Amino acid sequence: MHQHSSKILPLNSLCIICGPSKGGKTTFCESKFENYEIVNPEKIKFDILGDEHRNDINHFIWNEIYKRTALKLSLGERVVIDSNNLKKQNRINIANIAIRYGIPIFYIIVNRSLKDKIESSPRDKMVIEKQEGFFLENEKDILKGDGIAEVIDTRSQDFKVIKKFPLTNILSEVKERGFNGVTVIGDVHGCLQAMRQSIMWAMMRRNLIVFLGDIVDYGPNSLECIDEVYKTLTNGLAIMVFGNHERKIERWLEQVKQGQLKVKLSDGNKITTDAIEALTYQEREKFEVKFKTVLNLSRHHWVIGDAMFVHGAGLPEMWDLHSTRLYGRLENISLFGETNQEDPFKEDGYPNRIYNWIELIQKNKIIFVGHDIRQTEMPLVVQGMRGGQAVFMDTGSGKSVLGKAGRLHSADITFSEDGLPKIQNFVQN
Questions:
Q1: Which CATH class is domain 170-428?
Q2: Segments of the chain scoring below 50 in pLDDT
Q3: DSSP assignment letter at 339
Q4: Cα–chain-centroid distance for residue 127?
Q5: In the chain, what's the furthest Cα-to-Cα distance?
Q6: Which of 39, 199, 317, 428 keeps 20 to 30 A from 413, CA to CA?
Q7: Residue 136: its pLDDT value, please?
Q8: Cβ-contact 366, 381 below 8 angstroms
Q9: What is the DSSP letter of 407?
Q10: Please, are residues 316 and 292 in contact by the beta-carbon 8 Å criterion?
Q11: Would you say 207 and 179 are in contact if contact means Cβ atoms under 8 Å apart?
């Protein structure tokens, strides 16, 4: 697994490629990073004007680079700046965006030897030598990271680029990345210490972590829990499904910005929103970027082999839907589970849940859900009439249920060669 690599480039990071043209930067970028992550001034000029040599509009192009960098970083993406002989002021201007959001910055030095460059393009000898001289003048500052960045010199160092999980064949990817299995963690609801213990348990077993959503609300440390989830997601140690509580806080943040607050907050929600409102402006901006990143990297459901992970409930058609987002009825089911349409609410105001979806789970398939507290002592495993199973992982963490304090549970899962999941154990923290 990637923990053994000397340097890790997390998913939400700023990577500035440093070096002259003819240094192999573009080829390097394309071999290491996804195309959509790379921001290149020449490409932007071509996209806008069809002419990558229009240096007379460089001022406008750099404004566009700053805007794209800020947007992509704020949404939880990685940005790779590929520009020849980047001036110090431009480097610092870009880096300041990442500093403002609390996002890690890397200077990656890419430069072939002068001899190799001249041998490959002898006619450009004078231009190459001039560019090399300009780079060498700046190399001292670059090697120091301008005092703001971690430096990776590819002439002597290697590193690991964390990649997003693909839309399909996730089980193969889990195995390829060296994970032994999966540890699925139920609804955390702001209980930081229990969540940290569950994460450590998974890492000790070299398992991929699957968070079932509802990280926030009720418990005392929702913001710190988001910070912890952010680290595990961006370092490729975990994946996550949306919870309805993340969706509620997302809507609240959007409506606050718009000045049109309509969302109705529960007492549990208010613990989180009060904590957010107590932050300074700078702290809040950094938190919101981490929260957006967590949502950006989450899906409504994940399918790994014959196991589905979803917050509320899973339906048969979801097994073959390979997308990061669900819409309409399926989105609603994934977040809130199945409710009685004729009588949607009980006397206490809580949803009147039904479980017809369990009877539709095929033999040898398992759906892990959170959201619904069926019991607190241990996750509840229910067998459907077709032979499949549903596992209810929410055991009341952060809440009091019938006078009892709930606890956080996780489950360790292994997979056979044909993708059949096997629950090894349940662990309480």
A1: alpha beta
A2: 1-5, 114, 118
A3: B
A4: 42
A5: 83
A6: 317
A7: 64
A8: no
A9: B
A10: no
A11: yes
SS3 161: strand
H-type helices in 75-158, by residue range?
Answer: 88-101, 114-120, 125-143
Q: Tokens 């301008």 — which residue?
A: 146
First to last CA, the chain: 25
Q: Which amino acid is at 14?
A: L
pLDDT tens, residue by residue, 86-103: 888 999 999 999 999 999
Q: At what angle do helices 267-277 and 244-258 cross, to 10 degrees?
A: 50
What is the pLDDT, as a whole number, of residue 55?
80
Q: Give the pLDDT of residue 86.
A: 81
Distances (CA, A) of 309 to 149, 313, 358, 390: 37, 9, 14, 10
* Structure tokens belonging to residue 301: 């459901």
Provide φ and ψ at 354, rounded to 5°.
-125, 165
Eight-class DSSP state of 409: E
CA 296 vs CA 51, 184, 225, 226: distances in Å: 33, 19, 16, 13
Domains 2-161 and 170-428 belong to one CATH topology? no
CATH 3.40.50.300 fits domain 2-161: yes
Among residues 271, 277, 223, 253, the alpha carbon closest in space to that of 102 is found at 223
Spell out the domain ranges in the chain: 2-161, 170-428
pLDDT given at position 330: 96
419: left (phi over 0), alpha (psi -120 to 50) or beta: left
